[in-house]
Amino acid sequence: MDTFFFRIFFGLFRLVLPGSINMEQVHIIVSTKLLMDRRRTPATWKRSQQKETNNGMLMAMFLYALMGLFVGLMILNVPSVMLMMIILHSYFLFMLIMTLITDFSNVLLDTSDSQIILPKPVTSRTLLVARTLHIIVYLGQLVAAIMIFPLVFSFIKYGVPVGVFALLTTLLTTAIGIFLTYILYGLVLRYTSEQKVKDIISYFQIFMTVFFAVGYQVIPRMISLSELDLGFELHWYSYLLPPVWMAGLLEAVHTGSFDVVHIGLIICAVGVPVLAGFIIVRYLAPYFSKFMSAPADGASEQQRKSVKHRRNSLSETWGRIICRSDYEKAAFSQVWKMTGRDKNFRIQFYPNLAYIPVFVFIIFFKNFKDMDQTMAALSEGNMFLWLLYMGVFAVLLSLTLTAFYEHYTAAWVYQSAPISKPGELINGAAKALLIKFFAPVFILLNIAALIMWGLRVIDDILLAMANSLLVFYINVLLSKHYLPFSQQPGVKDQAGKFVSMILRTFLIAGLVGLHWLAIKMGWLVWALIPVSLAGCWFAEKQVKELKWNKIVM
Amino acid sequence: MNVIEITQLKKQYNGNYVLKGIDLQAGPGMILGYIGPNGAGKSTTIKIMAGIIDEFEGEVKVLGMDVRQDPVEVKRRIGYIPELAALYEVLTPVEYLKFTGKLYGLSDQVIADKGWELLKLFDLADKADMRMSAYSKGMRQKVLLISGLMHNPEIIFLDEPLSGLDANAVILVKEILQQLKQAGKTMFYSSHIMDVVEKISDRIILIDKGQIIADGTIETLRASAQQGSLEHIFQSLTASDTETSNTAKEIIEVLNS
């Protein structure tokens, strides 16, 4: 698809541009960049751990198109043009900005251009043309992927005139999206460092992945919801929003009503994007290329703190409370800090955490209908067991992830340092995961359970906590013993993973089943708590005493 | 005729002068060693001569052209091999060389032939279709050398070109530099590895805190400092001799405490 857009726009550029631009250089720069785009793994696809992608770009486009299909199907169902077009353009604007921020940052904030291309005999005007062409080709693909189905459905439902104008509003919204992205980047770059920007981008990437995960669950359910005739009213402030202008334009075309309100909306819909485009070309783009071609101004001022008088961090405070040996403390604060800082860990872990609310939602509310009834039925039954055991799923995932790290060779320190009890390192890591990832989720879900079911579930909460710890520790014992951050991602053989997963599932199911049976006899829950705790104590002791020959390096 | 002519070159970053008036002339067919401690301004000087940085004070002429007026023509006729350079590592070396070669205006045929031959000679032929993300530091450095030399430049600026190379490759590169000198090309060689600089350079320029503090052959430098190796000359000129041994002493004290 990119070669198609590339050919069209390259031909166009060649016709329009003056001879001083070296079009041969433009061609090689853009085609090389497109080749690299194809090999880059898009942020939304990063979790699948694949090292070399041959066409990650196409995969992402497919994903966007699929999402677009869902939204397109809504067009057939929603009766009001205005409402539907507001939804469609909001969706488009949102998708565009999010993608631009997460994936396109590579292009917009690319400093490698100044290092690799600038030393070559390329004029800055030629480079500017090449960058612009690259951006246009990229945007062309993206917009096509997001909007292809909604546009097709617009043609089908509202006929050719509205379809053609929807094409126009798509382009206008694109201009606004680019403008907003530029402004956002400009603000961030103005007030923070480049490193900060990368951090912020990685949070956007997490958000994006979560959005996709949730979106695929929720949007199909909304299609049936939208059969209901939703009455809606526009407040005065909604006239400030670009999607409303676009929808207004389309409604005017559809109904033929050109009153004052509609004409006002049309003026905004056309005028603001044109103005935005002018500002981008005139001010923002030159500002960015100047900013990016400037040599990195060395390390920014670092705050100097004496090592001795440094404030104790959270991880060290916790480590001192719950870890006894030095090995445990070391592993505890290492895992605590690195899980917060390693981008790959964050991108893989947090989206999975976000599945928890999705699961809760799906289990408790099969769909949006009869919500009141479902709520009433809930407080009767024993559904709270789901909530109580949800936390252990979160932490089990983090356990498998902490073994892997991009710069895994750094793990040589484990082998060169005089470590006599490697099991304590694993125990320290396990404790860090429990405090950092299990405790908050567990506490949150249990507060929810207490609110819904009242104090009668207090014994269940205690048993669930003991059981969760037991499940976690048994998992630590059963899985391969990797030291934290010592393995190359995506290389280790996945054999045996399935079996152990089945085993784990049975284990959790067994304990939950036991718990469920115990509820029938009230006193048994209390009786099981010490049994489960004893199991934890025993398992923890086993972990601590793991020898070097059990550790996989 | 001088191929490099620098007069009163000054460069500031946010009011801090990193180059405080450099004067330098060099003729064709020689190897210039450019040495100095970290942060002395070596890379900045090279970037200015290569037409990459265009905001500076003073006059810089390369091959008779003002680098501010004709940066593109200067770039076309020089080779620039930066230190720890970035390259597009998702590409294979063949693809990367095609990319850079075309930026220098070489034809597809020339790039394919020359690139392949050079890759073979640098012992990378069997890995030519691997993406460079899997390459070691030395292998990447070889690709950078090829991409900086393929258009047969008249002046070559090298910033730590030997970093990461194995012993055989180091010998090979040193030999290549000597041969290029015979062919009348000028090499501007910046490095920390003093014994290499000492052996291959016809002329050595010492720079410290943005100023040239010594300039001449290894023999004249030796005579002025009355000491043996370049390392010692360097220390005595930058007056870091006693300072360094004091620091060493303090480090030992902390270790023992």
Task: Quickly describe the structure.
By secondary structure, chain A is mainly α. Helices cover 74% and strands 1% of the residues of chain A. A two-stranded parallel sheet of chain A has the order 1-2.
The N- to C-terminal Cα distance of chain A equals 44 Å
- Output mean pLDDT of chain A: 77
Radius of gyration of chain A: 28 Å
Rounded to an integer in angstroms, the radius of gyration calculated over CA atoms of chain B is: 20 Å
Question: What does the oligomeric state look like here?
Answer: heterodimer
* DSSP strand tally of chain B: 10
Across the major sheet of chain A, the strand order is: 1-2
In percent, how much strand structure appears in the residues of chain B? 15-25%
In percent, how much strand structure appears in the residues of chain A?
under 5%
Q: How many individual domains of chain A?
A: 2
